[in-house]
Structure formats: structure tokens, C-alpha cells
Amino acid sequence: MRARVQRRNVGVHYQGDLRRALIDAAAAILDEVGADVLSLREVARRIGVSHAAPAHHFGDKAGLLTAVAVEGFELFVAHLGAVLSSTADAPVERLLALSRAYAQFAESHPGHFEVMFRPALTRTDDPAYVGASAAAFEALRLQIAHYQQLGWQPDGDTRELAAAAWAFAHGISVLRSQGSLAKHYPDVSLDGVAAITAALLGATTTGRSGRPRRPPPRAGYSRRR
Fold it and tell me: How far is it, in rounded angstroms, from Cα 56 to Cα 67?
């Protein structure tokens, strides 16, 4: 859960980590209204500092959004590790958990998720961004390499498989968050995300009850075989 952003009166010296507070405020605004609406002035107003404070720390809006994106990649790596550490050490089960975890991160951190993957809004050549984004992909690549050691696609190119897994999980997450998935698929819950992944892998998934599940058909929806 994100730290609560504290408002204060402008003109009073800020006590604490101002850079941290600006990132938190920006992330909160991104969650609420998105990157296109966010302004440095509103970020400053949110925590009660001079409108020049964000520019002093980050240079411009792109600099601030880059810092949020960097944090997003770091949060994503931590989230993925936490989820998979409690998942059975079986390749298919972990692939299902990976796609679910990806969608869950996009759902719980919408602001971070947006700017992590909008290069026009950030400084993608910033060393911190380059390092954090590379670390996120490496975390995914290492997972895929482990699955190969367990017998899944053992002869496949690890980086190619990691890119495919990333593209698949990211695509589902974006379609889900934008409402497009719901127009074509009846279950957009996290269990539904796992079911879609299982369908592609030819596996069986279970809901939280532990029983095998298939998403319920909706009116006018038919499953092709």
C-alpha cells in the first residue's frame, strides 16, 4: 500500500524526504487521472510545496515520470518474487502464477504500470531507468531459465521464451485494464487471466477453491473447439 501523501501549507519548510514525497504524490495522481493530466504544479500542490520544487529535483515532468517508472520496475520485481516464492516449483503452475502476478501488479499499481511502458513520457536513456528495466526483464528471464531446467521447453531460446511470456502477460494486462478484454471474454478476474494462460499452454487451472475451473459462458458467447 502506498504511503499516504501528506498535505501541508505552502511556505513552511518541508520536513522529511521531499524527493520521496514528490514521487509518492506523482504516483497517487497517476493512479487517479493518468499521465496525460498530471502536472508538476499539481504534484507540488498535493504535498504543499512550491511549484518549483518538482523541477528542482527532477528537472521536468519527464524526469519525475522517469523516477516513478524506475520505482515501478523495482516494485514489479519484488512483487513477482513474492508471488512466485509461494508457488509450487512446477513450470506450468509458475507460468500461470506469473501471468496472474503481472495482471495483479497492473491492477494494484496503475500509475506506475502506465509510465513504465510509455517511453514518450520518460527518459529511457536515464541510467536508473535502463538499469531498472533491464533488471525487470532479467528477473523474468531467470524464471524462464528455471522452468527450462525443470523440463519446460528445455531446448528453446531462453531470451526468446522470456520475451514471448512478457508480451503475452503484458498484452492480457493492458487489454484487461483498458476494458477491451471484457468485450470478448467472460471472466476478467485474476482467475480468468490464469485460465487464459492455461488455455494457451493446454493446461488445467483452478480457482481459489482449488477445483478445476472454466470461465462461465456469458449470453451470446460460445467457446469454439
Answer: 14
Residues 6+ apart with CB under 8 A from 153: 147, 161
- At residue 93, φ and ψ (nearest 5 deg) are -60, -40
Q: What is the pLDDT of residues 68-125, one digit of tens each?
A: 999 999 999 999 999 999 999 999 999 999 999 999 999 999 999 999 999 999 999 9
Confidence of residue 8 (pLDDT cuts 50, 70, 90): very low
One domain for residues 32 and 74: no
Shared-domain flag, residues 196 and 91: yes
Is the model's pLDDT at 225 over the cut of 90? Answer: no
Handedness of CA 62, 34, 141, 153 (dihedral sign): negative
Q: Which domain holds residue 82?
A: 65-201
The half-sphere exposure of 127 on its side-chain side, counting CA atoms within 13 A, is: 0
How many Cα atoms within 13 Å fall on the side-chain side of residue 37? 9
Distance (Å, whole) CA 10 – CA 156: 58
Global pTM reads 0.84
My answer on whether 172 and 111 are in the same domain is yes
The total number of structural domains that make up the chain? 2
Kindly state whether residue 2 falls inside one of the protein's structural domains: no
Place of cell 509461494: 86
Q: What is the CATH number of the domain that holds 34?
A: 1.10.10
Q: Which residues contact 166 (CB under 8 A, 6 or more apart)?
A: 137, 140
